[in-house]
Write a structure and sequence with these properties.
With about 210 residues, the protein is of the alpha+beta class. The chain contains 7 helices and 8 strands; from the N terminus they run E-H-H-H-H-E-E-E-E-E-H-H-H-E-E. It is globular, with a radius of gyration of 21 Å. The relative contact order is 0.12.
Length: about 210
């Protein structure tokens, strides 16, 4: 796993992307892509300019961990009308891990609670839905060994990735259930949490966004 550290490097120097653009001529779109680690890579010329401007070596520009991660959704059991609250249905996120020639897979499980259930925390009484993504078993190597060994920036990238997966999966599964579960509400509030979250994430959605 390889990610650039431009956002960290700029923060350490109290610099903005706009200032870097002014001083180096690197396009705003390229800088934005690098800061957000959303592109496929960086050109040598761009890297050369940034290293020169920031007075760093190329190895200071990147964080690396010897793993490649792939994410795959999977479900088991019976499901009626896309009911994410069905006790007969189980939802998993499989994380395929490649380290050199070694390939392994770890699993995390989705859990959903609606406001007719006893929500896990009293402090989220206003929630209509609580969703979490947790390790499927206690000796999960990804959670116990791999994640703790990674640089902070890569940990943040993984946390954000898992939260995005949980958010998108929850929204997709809710689309067919909103008329039934939240028919008397104009807005729903969702709290999300993963095994690596430092805090709960709160999202609010208007019912009209999901209904024709």
């Amino acid at each position: 796993m390889l990610k650039n550290r431009l956002a960290v490097l700029l923060a350490e120097r109290e610099l903005t992307a706009a200032k870097v653009y002014e001083e180096t001529g690197i396009s705003r779109s390229t800088l934005s892509s690098l800061v957000n680690n959303s592109g496929d890579g960086v050109q040598y010329k761009t890297l050369d300019r940034l290293c020169n401007f920031l007075e760093i070596e190329p190895n200071d520009f990147f964080d690396y961990a010897p793993y490649i991660f792939e994410y795959e959704l999977e479900s088991y059991g019976e499901e009626k009308s896309s009911d994410i609250f069905s006790p007969k249905k189980e939802y998993f996120l499989n994380i395929k891990i490649t380290q050199g020639l070694k390939k392994t897979m770890e699993s995390m499980e989705f859990f959903f609670f609606n406001d007719s259930d006893k929500l896990p925390f009293e402090r989220i009484e206003e929630a209509n839905l609580y969703a979490t993504l947790e390790s499927s078993y206690t000796d999960n190597d990804f959670e116990k060994r791999i994640y703790p060994s990674m640089p902070l920036s890569l940990k943040a990238n993984i946390r954000n990735k898992l939260m995005d997966i949980l958010m998108e999966y929850t929204k997709t599964k809710l689309q067919n259930k909103i008329p039934d579960i939240f028919k008397e509400k104009e807005e729903i509030t969702i709290f999300l949490e993963t095994a690596f979250s430092s805090s709960l994430k709160k999202y609010s959605f208007k019912k009209n966004d999901y209904l024709d």
